[in-house]
From TrEMBL:
Protein name: Enoyl-CoA hydratase/isomerase family protein
Membrane-spanning parts: none
PROSITE patterns for this protein: ENOYL_COA_HYDRATASE
Alphabetized CDD domains for the sequence: crotonase-like
Catalytic reactions of this protein: a (3S)-3-hydroxyacyl-CoA + NAD(+) = a 3-oxoacyl-CoA + NADH + H(+)
Every 3-hydroxyacyl-CoA dehydrogenase NAD binding domain range: 314-490
Top-level taxon of origin: Bacteria
Swiss-Prot/TrEMBL GO biological process terms: fatty acid metabolic process; lipid catabolic process
One GO molecular-function entry: (3S)-3-hydroxyacyl-CoA dehydrogenase (NAD+) activity
InterPro entries: 3-OHacyl-CoA_DH_NAD-bd (IPR006176), 3HC_DH_C (IPR006108), 6-PGluconate_DH-like_C_sf (IPR008927), ClpP/crotonase-like_dom_sf (IPR029045), Enoyl-CoA_hyd/isom_CS (IPR018376), Enoyl-CoA_hydra/iso (IPR001753), NAD(P)-bd_dom_sf (IPR036291)
């Protein structure tokens, strides 16, 4: 939890309504308390308790006002997402419960700490007032689950908050800190002292005022605020790129449009209809799957959850290139001091300047203030001497991807680092065990593979070597959470999970253009599928020359080789698969088209037209096959880890759930048949699961086999 505050509530006379809810009435105020760990989600029992509690409070002659609060780490964090596919039909529905809360004739107050999210905030909006701890956050993050706020949030928020702010809150799903929420009108007061005492006092005060409380549905402050007639059209246009492919943001825009144009009940009907469409769709299924998949990644079958991590308070980074600087920033951002070490003065100065200018750009965009910038820079020290790594708890090597160099660096770190320090490599392909072998402490060596830009991409591949100690793995997983990364555990192999998964996609793309489609058609199909960039545009960005081309041995036998020989190395030469103008805008290259046609003619393969769907299948099927191999070889723990790695590390469109989810969705027998039809051999695991009528997600080896 972001703020770590816990509400411990055990007032006298608390009476359990059921296992997760309790009721008390003291000094004229009824208290309804939810205590349903971990996050007080609105499961069946919570709904039952809320219904009973509010009904009782309404009829309790001793109660003149009502407070709703939660025990533990947070206020209600939303509907119980686990119930979406297994609804508790015996329990009252959320809407019915909220109707009862909203109809309470006595002033009702939601006392918010932690995070009031989704259905949690919607419940609070059915109270007459909302008070919160200053550290609380409120939000409607349903969009991240491919949904819209479906319990009145789209209709109630715009009644008290300005339409554009309401729209942004729902369409981006970002929680709002308490102070801002108060300024927006979502909260009525911040309570500096004990939240519960303050909320009870606030409620009693409202009861004593005597005026009838007003329901949010009947309020009009938000609606009364002027908003320009073009708001919705402009919002759609301005965010078209961010929302591309996703169905939920458009549904949210429509629901908020309904809120500002229709009477409340009609707006609610519109919300219900749009919510119903979203929850029945594949996008939401995929995104809900990813929500749990991300949390599943931290579960390592042979590693007890209580394995104590090693303390990490000071970090060393070796190498101040793009990766090293990005990694350093990741730790600085999370409040950890970093010593950044380089061999050459000039390279170190470049790294330092890159970090500063990156922070300055963030400041200029308003993401951080000058004080934060300075604090982060103050936490950074630079050095040309590896001896300055002697005191750190974790060293991350981020030098050039070359085994001899990495081994040399590790031998030096081994001689310098204190006993018990964790030695990590950021290698993206190389054999971690061979790197660990040059040290006298292989159990302390681990792979921490960041994705570029390291301070932005959420994925951290944690590579477990044959001898890596369990507490070192536990430390890496705990560290990932501190630096706000999603950790996915991999065993050692060439490319680990994410890079190894992307290689077959590139190979398939290069093979496909010999059968008819042009590179830009392939790219367009992949963009349609949801990638920001197609594989050929990606090659141009990375540089064709750096992907294994050598002028000395070039044999003109592939299109890439010929392009390299002609100096078409990609964006940096303003020519690759595409031609580029001065602003690096790409246009299909007639020269490349001619070259591809020549190769097509000599390939002997019958040319045929491909639909976008067929192109996508041709590129994704080998990726799925590779994923199954990763499971078969024990490199990845589970199919969902692979999906998380690609969504968080390679911009795989989240609304597809990732390649493994996609494959299970299509059905493995179909995947196997399609692979065979394109001349690929499905791996043994894929064939077995298909013939057993099973799915990739059902494959659980239970324990990662050691590839020692
Ligand atoms: C909704 O409300 C729809 C309504 O509009 C309409 C209805 C009609 N349900 O993230 P953590 C579990 S949609 C079930 O590691 P943190 C989570 O799986 C919902 N389970 O903790 C994990 O379990 P485990 C809108 C949930 O401290 C454990 O709690 N709300 C739910 O880093 C701890 O989670 C959201 O989308 C849930 N709603 O972060 C909020 N939430 O230990 C989703 C969590 O077995 N939740 N769990 O792995 C979050 O954003 C974060 O969990 C939160 C805590 C910020 C609350």
């Amino acid at each position: 939890m972001a703020n770590g505050e816990r509400l411990e509530v055990r007032p006298d006379g608390l009476e359990q309504l059921n296992q997760v809810t309790a009721y008390a009435c003291r000094d004229e105020v009824a208290l309804i308390l939810i205590d349903s760990p971990p996050v007080n989600a609105l499961g069946g029992d919570v709904r039952r308790g809320l219904l009973e509690g509010f009904t009782r409070a309404a009829n309790d002659p001793a109660a003149r006002a009502v407070v709703l609060a939660c025990a533990g780490r947070t206020f209600i964090a939303g509907a119980d997402i686990r119930e979406f596919d297994h609804p508790d039909l015996d329990a009252p529905g959320l809407h019915a419960v909220l109707d009862v809360i909203e109809a309470c004739p006595k002033p009702t107050v939601a006392a918010i700490h932690g995070t009031a999210l989704g259905g949690g905030l919607e419940t609070a909006l059915c109270c007459h007032y909302r008070v919160a701890s200053p550290s609380a956050q409120v939000g409607l993050p349903e969009v991240a689950l491919g949904l819209l706020p479906g319990a009145g949030g789209t209709q109630r928020v715009p009644r008290i908050v300005e339409a554009e702010a309401a729209l942004a809150m729902m369409a981006f799903g970002k929680p709002v800190p308490a102070a801002r929420a108060e300024a927006m009108g979502l909260l009525d007061a911040l309570i500096e002292e004990n939240l519960l005492d303050g909320a009870i006092r606030f409620a009693r005060g409202k009861a004593h005022e005597g005026s009838a409380p007003v329901r949010v549905r009947d309020r009009t402050e938000g609606l009364a605020l002027p908003h320009d007639a073009q708001l919705f059209a402009r919002f759609r246009r301005d965010n078209a790129r961010a929302f591309k492919g996703y169905t939920a943001p458009e549904a949210i825009v429509r629901a908020v449009e309904a809120a500002v144009t229709l009477p409340f009940e009609q707006g609610m009907q519109r919300e219900a209809q749009l919510y119903g469409e979203l929850i029945a769709g594949r996008q939401s299924a995929a995104m809900r799957y990813l929500f749990f998949a991300e949390r599943q990644c931290t579960r390592i079958p042979d590693l007890p959850r209580d394995t104590p991590p090693r303390p990490i308070a000071h970090v060393g980074v070796v190498g101040a290139g793009t990766m090293g600087s990005g990694i350093a920033m990741t730790f600085l951002d999370a409040g950890l001091p970093v010593v950044l070490v380089e061999r050459e003065e000039e390279a170190l100065a470049r790294g330092l300047a890159a970090i500063r200018s990156n922070y300055e750009a963030s400041r200029d965009k308003g993401r951080i203030d000058q004080a934060t910038l300075e604090q982060r820079m103050d936490r950074l020290t630079t050095s040309l001497d590896m001896a300055d790594l002697a005191e750190v708890d974790l060293v991350i090597e981020a030098v050039f991807e070359n085994m001899a160099l990495k081994q040399e660096v590790f031998a030096k770190i081994d001689a310098i680092a204190r006993p018990g320090a964790i030695l990590a490599s950021n290698t993206s392909f190389l054999d971690l065990d061979a790197i660990a072998a040059v040290t006298a402490r292989a159990p302390d060596v681990i792979g921490l593979h960041f994705f570029s830009p390291a301070n932005v991409m959420r994925l951290l591949e944690v590579v477990r070597g044959a001898k890596t100690g369990p507490d070192v793995v536990a430390s890496a997983m705990a560290l990932a959470r501190r630096i706000r990364k999603v950790a996915v555990l991999a065993r050692v192999c060439d490319g680990f999970i994410a890079n190894r998964m992307m290689t077959p996609r590139m190979d398939a793309a290069r093979a496909l253009i010999l059968e008819g489609p042009m590179p830009w058609e392939v790219d367009a199909a992949m963009r349609d599928y949801g990638f920001a960039m197609g594989p050929f545009a990606m090659l141009d960005l990375v540089g064709l020359d750096v992907i294994g081309w050598d002028a000395a041995t070039s044999s003109s036998s592939t299109i890439t080789e010929v392009l390299c020989e002609r100096g078409r190395w990609g964006q940096k030469r303003r020519a690759g698969f595409y031609d580029y103008d001065d602003k690096r805008r790409a246009t299909p290259s007639p020269q490349v088209e001619t070259l591809v046609r020549e190769f097509q003619q000599t390939s002997g393969i019958a040319m045929q037209p491909f639909s976008h769907e067929e192109i996508v299948e041709r590129l994704l099927l080998p990726v799925v096959n590779e994923g199954a191999r990763l499971l078969e070889e024990g490199i990845a723990l589970r199919a969902s880890d692979i999906d998380v790695a690609l969504v968080t590390g390679y911009g795989w469109p989240a609304y597809t759930g990732g390649p493994m989810f996609w494959a299970d969705d299509h059905g493995l027998p179909r995947i196997v048949a399609a692979l065979e039809a394109m001349g690929e051999t499905p791996c043994a695991l894929l064939s077995r699961l298909a013939s057993e009528g099973s799915a990739l997600h059902e494959f659980a080896p239970g324990k990662i086999p050691s590839n020692a």
